[in-house]
Amino acid sequence: xxxxxxxxxxxxxxxxxxxxxxxxxxxxxxxxxxxxxxxxxxxxxxxxxxxxxxxxxxxxxxxxxxxxxxxxxxxxxxxxxxxxxxxxxxxxxxxxxxxxxxxxxxxxxxxxxxxxxxxxxxxxxxxxxxxxxxxxxxxxxxxxxxxxxxxxxxxxxxxxxxxxxxxxxxxxxxxxxxxxxxxxxxxxxxxxxxxxxxxxxxxxxxxxxxxxxxxxxxxxxxxxxxxxxxxxxxxxxxxxxxxxxxxxxxxxxxxxxxxxxxxxxxxxxxxxxxxxxxxxxxxxxxxxxxxxxxxxxxxxxxxxxxxxxxxxxxxxxxxxxxxxxxxxxxxxxxxxxxxxxxxxxxxxxxxxxxxxxxxxxxxxxxxxxxxxxxxxxxxxxxxxxxxxxxxxxxxxxxxxxxxxxxxxxxxxxxxxxxxxxxxxxxxxxxxxxxxxxxxxxxxxxxxxxxxxxxxxxxxxxxxx
Length: 464
Ligand SMILES: Cc1cc2nc3c(=O)[nH]c(=O)nc-3n(C[C@H](O)[C@H](O)[C@H](O)COP(=O)(O)OP(=O)(O)OC[C@H]3O[C@@H](n4cnc5c(N)ncnc54)[C@H](O)[C@@H]3O)c2cc1C
Ligand SMILES: NC(=O)c1ccc[n+]([C@@H]2O[C@H](COP(=O)([O-])OP(=O)(O)OC[C@H]3O[C@@H](n4cnc5c(N)ncnc54)[C@H](O)[C@@H]3O)[C@@H](O)[C@H]2O)c1
What we know:
single chain; FAD/NAD(P)-binding domain; Enolase-like, domain 1; seven-stranded mixed beta sheet; five-stranded antiparallel beta sheet; globular; binds nicotinamide-adenine-dinucleotide
């Protein structure tokens, strides 16, 4: 039986990063993958969704100037072609060329160090679980019988449906509802909470919903799905809102209700690896078996590609380096973006979270892109920034809804992570007319506020 320094189970964002990190330290690494390398990001997540979003945005823009007919089949073929292009950098051959061994199959624990892959047995001094997550399918009567769409099969569609019910008003729902609606699919979003995008600053989530609604997406908020059935035309969803029952009809239904960790059939219980919402890990990403680590969606808490990368690197270093002190994860500076149009990006806390922690000493600033020349050059370009700082202008939270918000947040993220007061940005030259200049303009506001908040200036002004 072959013995490895490290066995990585799963080759998505987390597993690939862990593999290349361990290889970089000259360790022997085996990657076990049941499907193709690349994982959700490449095949059924970030990449195909962003490709669909980009094409839908092009169609939406073109429609302002001409009568455009959408060819759903070629759009979906393009989506798949983009995934194949990304995959070229992640194939088993690429992994083997970098020095890893590769086994195709499902890994099952035989004992704490031994894994079975079909008939083969392999042994690892250390093991990393990077098996990701799958769409959560709640036990709504009739749902599994109608073979619903999920992120795992929607990008394989050859044709776009005429109409689509989307269960859940989270990130997947908002990104896909807008894109598909722009491509001519009538979308209805059913969300059980009073507002969509529950992880966002509430006023920005509302702005995003209003934007999508203005484009034609229908929202049923505060609404629970109770039953699903097949009809001659497609799908009928039974819902309840308070005490009011009703039905919604569409050609197909997409389930986007959150995720469940991929752990089934791996024998985790036989070797004593604890599982709660996901695989339970400590701050060093060790599971309840200290030589077994976990990273990415299977562990959480942030189900994001860049967080899987971040954790994958730390898990691999802790697993293979004989250092006396292990590295710890630090979630103080997490950021993410929702790639709707406009994009919605967040770094750090909401205002409510910041107030709960810092009380009324926080400062809150707002910026409207109506003041930004660049935004004015594009009709209908809406945008807002909400910035929350401590009394020394250090960023506690930032929320941007705007064109390129996912990129703009990176500048805020640098200041936040390095502890640089936001007011310092006012002295940094920015290109004109750029979207990023909005941040410089906002920093002038923060800079002036700092001056006016200074006790001496306050005293002087109160004496006037
Ligand atoms: C529609 C959609 C859009 C998204 N967009 C974004 C985005 O824009 N930005 C972002 O940051 N995140 C996005 N995400 C989230 C992102 O895709 C995930 O957080 C990320 O892919 C998780 O990486 P991972 O390595 O943990 O798992 P995965 O990428 O899921 O990889 C797990 C791998 O393990 C394999 N595997 C599972 N079980 C076994 C087993 N027993 N044996 C062997 N192999 C196994 C699987 O086949 C898979 O290849 C999106 C998700 C979805 C669904
Ligand atoms: N741009 C990005 O970074 C990006 C894009 C897509 C997905 N993702 C990741 O994928 C993960 C999964 O996305 P998701 O959209 O499936 O989950 P989500 O957690 O974002 O949203 C699920 C939504 O479904 C609602 N819901 C749950 N049960 C319901 C029910 N029975 N009836 C009606 N509504 C119900 C929830 O209230 C919630 O709003 C996210 O956590 C995110 O991290 C990230």
